[in-house]
Design goal:
Blueprint: H1 3-19, E1 22-30, E2 36-40, E3 52-53, E4 56-58, H2 65-77, E5 84-92, E6 95-106, E7 115-117, H3 122-125, H4 133-145, H5 150-155, H6 159-172, E8 181-184, E9 192-195, E10 200-203, H7 205-210, H8 214-229, E11 233-234, E12 239-240, H9 243-246, H10 248-270, H11 274-283, H12 285-288, H13 298-309, E13 315-320, E14 325-330, E15 336-340, H14 345-353, H15 359-376
Parallel strand pairs: 1-6, 8-10
Antiparallel strand pairs: 1-4, 2-3, 2-7, 5-6, 9-10, 11-12, 13-14, 14-15
Helix pairs in contact: 6-8, 8-10, 10-13, 11-13, 13-15, 14-15
Length: 377
């Protein structure tokens, strides 16, 4: 096994061990024909009788992930592990203390008792379980095997984590839709394409390259999921959106609510904290800079910071234009009152429009604004 990949596996294993009580390793064996190996569960099995699955085992106490993978692969089919790639990570709704990690392993010439499957045969085997995480893992493994571009194969390493958090985020929102399968899309796609009807989320390589930090990618994608999957409900205390009657302010309200939900989810699942939020908003500034009304979306980031600092009790919408700054304070019934924010107009305008502002100055001005507004509210 490549030394770098071995170390990456062990780091991942340590991170998962800190969060979960039980780690299950699903081994996805692949041959030179780019097929993957599946075996069928017993017809009288307690869970998923007769369903197809990957062979695997549990990470033992004190065992590294790479050592466990070697042991399990040898026990299953006398396989010596060489090339490996993590293609899928997921938890079960029934028990959030268990996590499965699906690892692709090259396994030519091994003694395995089951079936070798390609893209065409896969849907037939999972006709009754096409929403299962095993099916998703199989799709990811086959997609990875048929990716010829070396750079895209490297970018794929970020997909399992994005997929895992996307699935969990929809569960967090209690959405009834099937979670999208996350894939690397075409180079000419603008950012990402979220297809709710076909349950796919295609991320362009340029988008992955542009955002080195996965938190920035996740913030944008998860924020958009709130809009796409919760069009009729503002999920902040299940208040119905009246955006059609309320105009642009309600649109910004929905944006802030989406940010609140993303923050709360990342805080619960990834130990995300306010300092990381400030860093993400600073890095996303270039997406929103400008002095026009349309570009004033940057002020929503301040509104999100205010609402997060108040633990989601109220939503604060800053409205910044050329002459004045207003802060609208909403309650959960969408009633709002205006707050005088003239004392911090200069620093907020600098946050919103100065393309050369340093991270230190951005952080200082943002915290100053929060402190001033806390005095007003």
């Amino acid at each position: 096994m490549d030394y770098k990949k071995e170390q990456q596996l062990n780091v991942l294993g340590n991170e998962l061990s800190e969060k979960f009580g039980d780690i299950i390793i699903d081994v996805i064996f692949a041959n030179n024909q780019k097929n993957i190996f599946l075996q069928k569960r017993a017809a009288d099995a307690k869970l998923f009788p007769g369903a197809w699955e990957f062979p695997g085992g549990h990470l033992d106490a004190g065992e590294t992930l790479s050592a466990s993978l070697r042991r399990i692969a040898y026990e299953i089919g006398n396989v010596e592990v060489r090339n490996t790639d993590v293609v899928h990570i997921f938890t079960w709704d029934e028990n959030r203390n268990i996590v499965n990690i699906q690892i692709l392993v090259q396994a030519e010439g091994t003694k395995l008792n089951g079936s070798w499957v390609d893209h065409k045969k896969l849907p037939q085997l999972f006709a009754d379980y096409d929403s299962s995480p095993i099916y998703r893992g199989a799709i990811y493994a086959l997609n990875f095997l048929h990716t010829n571009n070396v750079e895209q194969m490297k970018l794929f390493a970020r997909i399992p984590n994005i997929n895992h958090l996307t699935v969990d985020f929809l569960a967090f929102l209690k959405a009834s839709d099937a979670p999208p399968i996350v894939t690397i899309g075409n180079e000419n796609e603008k950012r990402f394409r979220l297809d709710r009807a076909n349950a796919t989320l295609s991320i362009s390589p340029s988008f992955l390259r542009h955002y080195d930090n996965d938190y920035e990618i996740l913030w944008i994608i998860l924020h958009q999921i709130v809009h796409n999957y919760c069009q009729n409900i503002v999920t902040f205390d299940n208040v119905k959106s009246i955006r059609s009657n309320f105009g642009k302010n309600t649109m910004f309200y929905v944006d802030i609510v989406a940010d609140l939900l993303v923050y709360e989810f990342l805080r619960m699942t990834s130990e995300f904290n306010p300092a990381q939020l400030v860093n993400v908003t600073y890095n996303l500034r270039s997406e929103y800079q400008g002095e026009t009304v349309e570009a004033s979306k940057l002020t929503r980031l301040l509104g999100s910071a205010l609402a997060i600092s108040r633990r989601m009790n109220e939503v604060f919408l800053p409205v910044l234009d050329e002459n004045t700054l207003r802060i609208l304070r909403f309650d959960k019934f969408l009633r709002y009152a205006e707050i005088d924010a003239s004392t911090i107009k200069t620093s907020l305008k600098r946050i919103a429009t100065d393309p050369k502002i340093s991270y230190e100055k951005y952080n200082t001005d943002l915290r100053k604004a929060l402190d001033c507004l806390k005095g007003e509210i």
